[in-house]
Amino acid sequence: MKVTIDGQSIEVEPGTTILQAARMIGGEVVPPAMCYYSKLKGSGGKCRCCLVEVAKGSEADPRPMPKLMASCVTGCMDGMEVNSKSSERVQEARKSVTEFLLINHPLDCPVCDQAGECDLQNLSFEHGKSQSRFIEEKRTFEPENIGENIQLHMNRCILCYRCVMVADQLTDDRVHGVMDRGDHSNISTCISKAIDNEFSGNMIDVCPVGALTDKTFRFKSRVWFNKPYNAHRDCDKCCGKTTVWMFGDEIQRVTGRKDEFHEVEEFICNGCRFDHKEVSDWIIEGPREFEKDSVINQNNYTRKLETVEIATEDQILLGREQDRKKISMPAIPLDKNEEEDFKHGNI
Amino acid sequence: MSIESISLSGRKKVVSNKEMSFLERMYLLAIVKGMIITIKHLFTRKVTILYPEQVREMSPVYRGQHQLKRDELGRENCTACGLCALSCPAEAITMKAEERKPDEKHLYREEKYASIYEINMLRCIFCGLCEEACPKDAIYLTTSKLLVPSSYDREDFIFGKDKLVMPLDIAMKNAQLKNAK
User: Fold this and answer.
1) Interface touch A345/B135, C-beta < 8 Å
2) How far is B106 from chain A (nearest CA, A)?
3) Taking the model in full, what pTM does it have?
4) Could you confirm whether domain A2-101 is CATH 3.10.20.740?
5) Does the structural domain B67-180 have CATH classification 3.30.110.170?
6) Vertex A113: Cα angle to A107 and A119 (nearest 5)
7) A111–B3: do the CB atoms touch at under 8 Å?
């Protein structure tokens, strides 16, 4: 099947969604996604960030779709034409969605540990306004302790349900979920229970905002002051392939390896994430690379720097060999004739 | 033409070496001329001040020693977000964050605060980028109205929170001023 997104065509398998097709193309056409997570079944369709305009439904039915479609849950049709970033309507819609998501967000990025690798931060950087029209009081929740390893900040949550799906699909017993309805809905364990399942730490990685953060890393450092390295160790529970975030010789945080769409490549177990913070536990492979404009690249010199060569002839910079010797080197004195010439000028 | 008499810049002047007359050799006229200039300067405004006792008035945009501000309740504004250190072109700023305890709510405005905040004044170039980057209105170079003093030891130039944080009495005065309005 052939799909065209923002003028770029690609052949895809039947059953691919528009978002997946856009990710195959890559670059600017990829819609932002706050709730969709390719590794979690059933995710997507909640945040409405990935809205796109379908200008031509398919080859068989070329009518455009009347409303903007959530690209993460809309399947591709043969001959479909989609406008993503190029469409004025889509830009406007994303702006509105961002404004809605930020209504109850506390905007405490200076305090938040997720700042610098936060999807909501990226989204509002791209599509957000610098001002807020919301004058009412923001919705707040009482802080709740959900265990030793994970810190919950319900105020920052955008209710993407990713963490619930992680608990459902990766761990054997889900102890937390979304309580209450509407404006009151909040992530919580049923009756203040600790989340200590073996793979529960992946909630931190999948959380697009700073609602679930690593308690062992809490306020230790900002992400851009850490040096991220790819590392691995032998683990009998998971693949053991991680990114370790170091400050000097100290491993401050261990996360999964996130790809360009900020999705972990492979989920890791809690043992790797929280309990192994000695350098001797890990085999460090090398520096982890991030997208060019990420703040994590601050002070990162992993790229090879080229030496600058001025494209002029050597003679212009240095002068002729014989001239340099005669004028400046006392070890090779001028002979009588030359000295006479030099004195009267006219060399 | 010899190389001595040509000037490459074209600005070379040959000093005249002519013989002086008797009157000129007495130097009387020259001395009087010089004295007039000297006496004229006695009555002009002095350009120097007695520095440690007297301090010049600073321009309102003058950038001197940094100050970490407190709000009108006397709580520290700084939340150790690290943006000043990130923006600092000289890498002069370091900090360490700590979580606020429940009984410290009157000391720090946010959940997180800087337990260590150091500026190396030898590195600092007083560009003011930290002030521009600060999202919490915490660091200012214009409010302290202080020059960074000189010293013999390099260690003396690492300014910690003891020197940088706004004194409480100034914070209280600011609060009173605000209430009076």
Assistant:
1) no
2) 17
3) 0.79
4) yes
5) no
6) 65
7) no
